[in-house]
């Protein structure tokens, strides 16, 4: 059964580890992440962007697939199905479709509008036991064709949003989606410490988990980050494994044209990436 992310993140803050949010794009991705979570006895959050939602045939399709897998693959670790960077309308749609968690990203609105829209989403989501993530200070890089330059969140604005009753807060601290440029200045730990100080026990979310050095990840967790989002790294691992398989010509030989065989190396590559992250984030055996 899907659960809200509230409890698993509260436990992560208390235990000083982070739960991974791994974005899904198809059935193989979903199955690889769920099986890895179960094998490592780790809680997990499946992230779905609005673009991935459309690609997979709509939110109800995804809810059906994930619930089916949880039951038939005997997944007993806590799993949250979460909308990633949702618009106001997108958030309403996933709540209707049966997601257990939602991010409303109002970071591109004025802080006043971000607050009023976040408040409305909290009310609707909480009535159904669905957890809510809000964002302050946009996260840079490209996601679903939308490019943001990234900014450092203001601690006072973070507190205003945190006090509304959200369950997790994404605050920009110099993190960006996708690959980090050569001249990246790194995470701003002074900003993170100030945000933590202002928001107390609020689980903080680190977006753009791909390519952040391990020591920075560990330091971010020690400063209150309880959820880390990873997307690009699984995509790169999947693409590399699939390309190697096809370039080796294996897909043309024997039964190699079987799509299940073609996608198998990519599936294993996602499993290995997710396991590595769960170990780094400290969520193994925390289910
Ligand atoms: P990456 O693609 O950089 O791993 O970021 C994922 C993310 O933050 C999704 O919201």
UniProtKB/TrEMBL annotation:
Residues at the active site: 84 (proton donor)
Binding annotation for Zn(2+) 2: 105, 135
Keywords from the named record: Lyase, Metal-binding, Zinc
Gene3D superfamilies assigned to the protein according to its UniProt record, in alphabetical order: Aldolase class I
Top-level taxon of origin: Bacteria
Amino-acid positions noted as binding Zn(2+) 1 in the UniProt annotation, renumbered to this chain: 85, 177, 207
Biological processes per GO annotation: fructose 1,6-bisphosphate metabolic process; glycolytic process
Full protein name: Fructose-bisphosphate aldolase, class II
Species: Tepidibacter formicigenes DSM 15518
């Amino acid at each position: 059964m899907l659960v809200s992310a509230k409890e698993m993140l509260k436990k992560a803050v208390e235990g000083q580890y982070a739960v991974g949010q791994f974005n899904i794009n198809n059935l193989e991705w979903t199955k690889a992440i769920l099986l890895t979570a179960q094998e490592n006895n780790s809680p997990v959050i499946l992230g779905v962007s609005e673009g991935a939602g459309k690609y997979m045939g709509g939110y109800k399709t995804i809810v059906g697939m994930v619930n089916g897998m949880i039951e038939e693959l005997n997944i007993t670790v806590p799993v949250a199905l979460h909308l990633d960077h949702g618009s106001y309308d997108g958030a309403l749609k996933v709540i209707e479709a049966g997601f257990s968690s939602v991010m409303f990203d109002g970071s591109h609105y004025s802080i006043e509008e971000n607050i009023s829209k976040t408040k409305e989403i909290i009310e609707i989501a909480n009535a159904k036991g669905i957890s809510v993530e809000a964002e302050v200070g946009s996260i840079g890089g490209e996601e679903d064709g939308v490019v943001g330059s990234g900014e450092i969140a203001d601690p006072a604005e973070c507190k205003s949003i945190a006090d509304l009753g959200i369950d997790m807060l994404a605050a920009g601290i110099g993190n960006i989606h996708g690959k980090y440029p050569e001249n990246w200045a790194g995470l701003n730990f002074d900003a993170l410490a100030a945000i933590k100080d202002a928001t107390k026990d609020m689980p903080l979310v680190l977006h753009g988990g791909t390519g952040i050095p391990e020591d920075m990840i560990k330091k971010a967790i020690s400063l209150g980050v309880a959820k880390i989002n990873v997307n690009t790294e699984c995509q790169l691992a999947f693409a590399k494994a699939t390309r190697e398989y096809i370039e080796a010509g294996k897909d043309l030989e024997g039964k190699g044209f079987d799509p299940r065989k073609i996608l198998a190396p990519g599936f294993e590559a996602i499993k290995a990436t997710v396991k590595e992250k769960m170990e780094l984030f400290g969520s193994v055996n925390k289910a």
